[in-house]
Specification:
Layout lengths: L19 E8 L2 E8 L15 E8 L1 E6 L6 E4 L3 E4 L5 E6 L5 E8 L8
Antiparallel strand pairs: 1-2, 2-8, 3-6, 3-8, 4-5, 4-7
């Protein structure tokens, strides 16, 4: 098996009007990606509804997320993580526009043994 390595905080893509998703690792039932946001938010009325569970870690910057049914916006700062169950609708209300917001996102099938 080939060894892969990198640094999630370096080699950032140039500023863009779109979030940048970079695939880091993928196998059956599991996807790991780096997401770089620079002031982006979900479009009005748009909700993510992922079939996989999602675990996100905010490495830098900040963001506000709304989880459907939650009473308040979930504000994240560097070091914060969040587990979003499959099909839990959510949206990104805002991301830091003054610095890159860097996410590590792990998507996995519900109930899958991802440690194997």
């Amino acid at each position: 098996m080939q060894i892969a390595s990198g640094n999630l905080l370096t080699g950032l893509p140039p500023a863009s009007s779109e979030e940048v998703f970079e695939l880091l690792h993928q196998r059956a039932g599991l996807t790991i990606e780096r997401i770089v946001s620079r002031g982006q938010a979900s479009p009005p009325g748009f909700w993510y509804d992922n079939p996989q569970e999602e675990w996100v870690l905010l490495l830098s910057g900040s963001a506000g997320l709304t989880l459907e049914g939650a009473s308040a916006e979930h504000v994240m700062q560097a070091g914060a993580w969040l587990h979003i169950p499959a099909h839990r609708r959510h949206r990104i209300e805002w991301t830091d526009g003054a610095q890159p917001t860097i996410w590590l996102a792990i998507h996995h099938d519900p109930g899958a043994d991802v440690a194997a």
